[in-house]
């Protein structure tokens, strides 16, 4: 059996335990303080050694350098004047008492478009190439002035048929015609040359042929000689232009045959020329018609006058 504890000794045991605990705690704190003191002493000794080394280095550097110039002393700063904090009412400016006018927004005008100046183009004069003049193939009659043709005689013969005369034979649309040489001027080639047309001219006017004697008005001979059976294809294949002496026009023909001498007695003369006044007669031996150029010229002049009346 266990021995019962003495109840009277329990308070003493508790006090003894408390004192033992205090003694134990004090002993541990003393040991910690002693260890800390040893560490701090080592640190302080190391810092003192470093300080002694820095002082020795600084003394050596100071001995090597010249005497230092004393640093300038800063000028004494002036104290600002005291500012009174007492409030005093300021008079209101006169401009503030004036009623402010409303500020109008600025008027923005649309930009004015100034047209760019047109570039100045220098006028260049284009020189037209010179017109190639057509030279005559044959000069039939060299007289420059027109001589008045006397009226025909009573038997229908013109004045130039009073004696034998020279004639030129040519073809127009298959019809052979004869014209006295005294009534002709020159023969010009038409093949390979372009005629210059003129506005407002009649159908029997083919155009202008530039020649050495001037601008020659070329006529459609077939339209005058055979108006009843004329065709448009008669204008094709025209080879020559025969100028008429004393006039500024010429006859367009297809072929020029030859010249021959005719006896007035070999010609069947027309005494009445009502319908075809330009037909003087017929050469029976050569089966060709003999033209009276003066009568043809009057027909052409009257036809031109009628055409002018139509245009007006």
Helix-strand blueprint:
Blueprint: H1 10-64, H2 94-97, E1 138-139, E2 165-172, E3 175-180, E4 184-189, E5 205-211, E6 214-220, H3 221-225, E7 240-244, E8 249-253, E9 255-262, E10 267-269, E11 279-283, E12 288-291, H4 293-311
Parallel strand pairs: 3-12, 6-8
Antiparallel strand pairs: 1-4, 2-3, 2-9, 4-7, 5-6, 7-8, 10-11, 11-12
Task: Describe the protein's architecture and organization.
Helix content is 27%, strand content 21%. A hairpin with a 2-residue loop joins strand 5 (205-211) and strand 6. The model is unreliable at 142-148 (pLDDT under 50). The strands form two sheets. The protein has a six-stranded mixed beta sheet with strand order 1-4-7-8-6-5. It has two domains: 12-56; 138-311, OB fold (Dihydrolipoamide Acetyltransferase, E2P) (Beta Barrel). The protein has 312 residues and is of the alpha+beta class.
Task: Let me know the CATH homologous superfamily of the largest domain.
Answer: CheA-289, Domain 4
CATH-level-2 architecture of the largest domain: Beta Barrel
Percentage of residues assigned to helices: 25-40%
Following the backbone from N to C, one meets helices and strands in this order, namely: HHEEEEEEHEEEEEEH
Q: Any idea how many domains?
A: 2
Do you know the CATH topology of the largest domain? OB fold (Dihydrolipoamide Acetyltransferase, E2P)
